Amino acid sequence: MHLYTYDGSFEGLLTVVFEAYERKAWPTAIEQEHLAQPTMFGETIAVHTAEEKAQRVWQGLQKKLSAGALQQLYHTYLWEQPGFEQLIFAYIRLAYSSTDNIEGNYAASCVLHVQQAAKQVHREKHRMEAFVRFQKTKDGLFYATISPDFNVLPLIISHFRKRYADQRWAIYDTRRRYGAYYDLHCATLVNLELSPQQRHATLAEAVMDTEEDKYKQLWQVYFDHVNIPERKNPKLHLRHVPRRYWKYLSEKQPRLHK
Amino acid sequence: MYFRCMDDKITGKLKILADAAKYDVSCSSSGGKRKNENKGLGNAEGMGICHSYTEDGRCVSLLKILLTNFCIYDCAYCVTRRSNDVQRAAFTVQEVVDLTINFYRRNYIEGLFLSSGIFKDSDYTMERLVRVAKKLRQEHKFNGYIHLKTIPGASEELIKEAGLYADRLSVNIELPSEMSLQQLAPEKNYAEILLPMGAISRQLVQSKEERKLFKSAPAFAPAGQSTQLIVGASAENDHQILQLSDKLYKNFSLKRVYYSGYVPVSSDNRLPIITAPPIIRENRIYQADWLMRFYGFDAKEIADELHPNLELDIDPKLAWALRNRFAFPMEINTADYEMILRVPGIGVKSAKKIVSARRFTQLSFEHLRQMGVVLKRAKYFITCQTRSLQPQEFDSDLIRRRILFGDGSVRSALLRQQLDLFQKVG
């Protein structure tokens, strides 16, 4: 029995892989330090993240896997669902031990699961790119909050940087309490320490641009009038926009017009 | 909260001109390849994004409006027709530009879909549409998606200019036959519609060739051209409609043909009396269209003189399979990819997964299930390692009944609703 703990970073997880191979001791569990319960049976191995060890694991994988498969592994890390560390480990172990490329082998459960996890993450990424609604502030910043099911903020930055190259913008993940800020030159990840009252990280009316309400209202008007009532289809509507995403959407908020 | 009276005016116009544009079903915003290379606003290089969905379940990706709903034409199926008693309005060029930019900056939309009623004459109208696109591109460095509707009868120079600023151009074919067009839109004719369609298609080819030689040659409507036709406002059967689409795809290399189930917007006595839009029929035609474009089906295989209409209660691929039982059952471990695509219930993604996974191991039904292959319909048509989930040989009628009414079959709420409606009417 070998419980590995690490600091929660992707490099940390790759370091766990390195250590496991070094010791020839396959993990029975991999957990983040602050979540780990001490085990009664077996050994707990606390792994310290080491850049060069992580690098070696990654380079080894690059020889075995395509860029697309490496990206799927990273997406599985951002997936954050219970057991993702073990899943990544199982995938890496299969990749190392096979002489052939394992990528299309959906009959192997870890390959299939990594593919499915990556797909879920990709879908959430796409949804965030679609459902983010910026509000303009008095000083010309476009601001939005998100709380995605999976940790997709790092994945959506480049999309918004390319799209809004000429405007300052910020996107804040209220669940994971960090954000991305673009200052017209580059986009950086920022940590904001907010008091419990500011948990929702919404903008006060006073800092909003004077035209913000006007365009929010026009958007709601547009949304209402582009609908064809004779074709009403609530089931299809909900399949495309599940209720948990409504909080982002200004067109799903109370009407500013009559 | 107070709004200035200017804002109220814009709100009023937006209500009228969004209402008037919503029957145009095109919503695509992909294939543009327009990158943000000038540190401007917007990027249309990737696939399009649906930013919202209306309560009728359609995607909202573009700001889809008419420049004006004043129109000199009187097409029976059109809500904007001259003789219809509706409120009229017109945006200025600047108003459309401001709306587009401000919606885009807030991540509401992918870009603009601009169409118009015809006021004064074709060129006068087209010139204004072009001016909106030009202003967005040149003054605002806007790289978002722009779809311009080409006004029938507009001059070739204007169409050429439109293609320099727009990502996609479209001319609506309107109705599935020339005869219907004469009846319902006497001021229009196929020749006038096909002329600009041909001109766009020639420009597309020419620009592609020029860009092969000179990378800096201007791109012409990089997302290509599309068209739309109205289903259910005239008497054509599905066979005729699919034949027309097939020709349009082949002769004008269209990216998409859109089908718009006729929504009764008119009590004009030239039209059939219908109470609800033919949503299921429209859906079946789209499925057939997909079969032609992505599944390697020929139009003739889907509908012909013997089977002129698509069946409403089953999808066209299942209908084809039931008519062609000799091609089945298909062995999943050995059948060609093209044949696996023809199995009812198996889509492009599942077919690709199957072909990829079977290189590693012989696949069983359990493998298929884990991969997410839907077996509800497929199980009647496939074997895995020569084993079948259906030991008895069923005849086609029995399979159809099993799929429609058998264990665990979930019928679409919409289908149930429309079938109920037929029963009530009947």
- CATH level-3 fold name of the largest domain in chain B: TIM Barrel
Largest sheet of chain B: 6 strands, parallel
Structural class by secondary-structure content of chain B: alpha/beta
The tally of domains of chain A stands at: 2
Largest Cβ-defined interface:
A-B, 57 and 62 residues
The parts of chain A where pLDDT drops under 50 for at least 5 residues are none
Instruction: Work out the number of β strands of chain A.
Output: 8
- Largest sheet geometry of chain A: 5 strands, mixed
Shape of chain B: globular
How is this fold's topology laid out?
The complex is a heterodimer of chains A (about 260) and B (about 425).
Chain A: E1 2-6, H1 10-23, E2 29-32, E3 43-46, H2 51-64, H3 67-79, H4 84-97, H5 109-131, E4 135-136, E5 142-146, H6 153-163, E6 169-173, E7 178-182, E8 187-191, H7 212-225, H8 234-240
Parallel strand pairs in A: 1-2, 1-3, 5-6
Antiparallel strand pairs in A: 4-5, 6-7, 7-8
Chain B: H1 5-19, E1 52-53, E2 59-60, E3 62-66, H2 93-105, E4 111-115, H3 122-139, E5 145-149, H4 156-165, E6 168-170, H5 178-184, H6 190-213, E7 225-231, H7 238-251, E8 256-261, H8 279-294, H9 299-302, H10 316-323, E9 330-331, H11 337-340, H12 348-357, H13 365-371, H14 375-378, E10 382-383, H15 396-405, H16 413-425
Parallel strand pairs in B: 3-4, 4-5, 5-6, 6-7, 7-8, 9-10
Antiparallel strand pairs in B: 1-2
Helix pairs in contact in B: 2-3, 3-4, 4-6, 7-8
Care to describe what's here?
Helices cover 43% and strands 14% of the residues of chain A. By secondary structure, chain A is α/β, with parallel strands linked by helices. Chain A folds into 2 domains: 2-124, no CATH class; 130-252, no CATH class. In chain A, the strands form 2 sheets. In chain A, strands 4-5-6-7-8 form a 5-stranded mixed sheet, covered by helices on one side. The mean pLDDT of chain A is 91. Chain B has 426 residues and is α/β, with parallel strands linked by helices. Chain B folds into 2 domains: 2-277, TIM Barrel, CATH 3.20.20; 316-425, no CATH class. Chain B is built from 16 helices and 10 strands. Classes of the chains: A alpha/beta (258), B alpha/beta (426). At the A-B interface, helix 5, strand 4, helix 6, helix 7 and helix 8 of A face helix 1, strand 1, strand 2, helix 2 and helix 12 of B.
